[in-house]
Amino acid sequence: SYVLTQPPSVSVAPGETARIPCGGTNLGVKSVHWYQQKPGQAPVLVIYSDVARPSGIPERFSGSSSGNQASLTISRVEAGDEADYHCQVWDTGSGLRVFGGGTKLTVL
Amino acid sequence: QVHLVESGGGLVQAGKSLSLSCAASGFAFSRNNMHWVRRAPGKGLEWLAYISRDAIIKKYAESERGRLTISRDNSKNGLFLQMNSLMPEDTAVYYCARDGEGGSLDYWGQGTLVTVSS
């Protein structure tokens, strides 16, 4: 089955740029989606189809994908961005959805 | 606005079964594919099951195949998940979510907590 790999944690100072990677075999040919989840809350879709932002998501959130890696970039990080971030793909071969293990973003 | 509300969680003994429900509103439920996802304590999100809008296609995570049954009632805007032979490792918050563009999950409920005691 398809596997997505994320680092357990990423730390960044306020105002800086956070980059959260997600690795998978030939990930660049799949559509990658990203979710933000704060403690006690439901996940929120922040990036879909590699680079698209749903309505209401700040422009500070952006995505990219190429080769075996995708990334979620958060510019001008704020304290309110502290959360778990999960990448996800649709493994069309099996028809199943797959999540990465999640990355905890800490704002120092 | 899209609204998804899960129910049916609670404390259950290992080996027992449990049925979860998800009430949908604010969108054309019968025209949307749906999912169940869970998050266990200290772990990431785990996708569990998918059902097409007409309930003809159902998909399950390989690790859970045989223990889960996803279903829906379009006349009542309801989504369901039947879980059998529960184990302590099934302790988690269970979410229903709507299928979105490109295979994403664009709207999520607030989740229902299932605790399985040994």
Structure in a nutshell:
With 108 residues, chain A is mostly beta strands.
The end-to-end distance of chain A, rounded to whole angstroms, is 36 Å
Oligomeric state of the chains?
Answer: heterodimer
Largest chain interface and its two residue counts?
A-B, 29 and 27 residues
Tell me how many strands of chain A there are.
Answer: 9
Share in helix of chain B = under 10%
Q: Name the average pLDDT of chain A.
A: 96
Beta-strand residue fraction of chain B: over 45%
- H-E order of chain B: EEEEEEEEEEE
Poorly predicted sequence stretches spanning 5 or more consecutive residues of chain A = none
Fill in the keyword field for this structure.
heterodimer, A: 108 residues, mainly beta, six-stranded mixed beta sheet, three-stranded antiparallel beta sheet, 9 strands, 0% helix, 46% strand, B: 118 residues, seven-stranded mixed beta sheet, four-stranded antiparallel beta sheet
Fold topology:
The complex is a heterodimer of chains A (108) and B (118).
Chain A: E1 9-12, E2 18-23, E3 32-37, E4 44-47, E5 61-66, E6 69-74, E7 83-91, E8 96-99, E9 103-107
Parallel strand pairs in A: 1-9
Antiparallel strand pairs in A: 2-6, 3-4, 3-7, 5-6, 7-8, 7-9
Chain B: E1 3-7, E2 10-13, E3 18-25, E4 34-39, E5 45-51, E6 58-60, E7 68-73, E8 78-83, E9 92-99, E10 105-108, E11 112-117
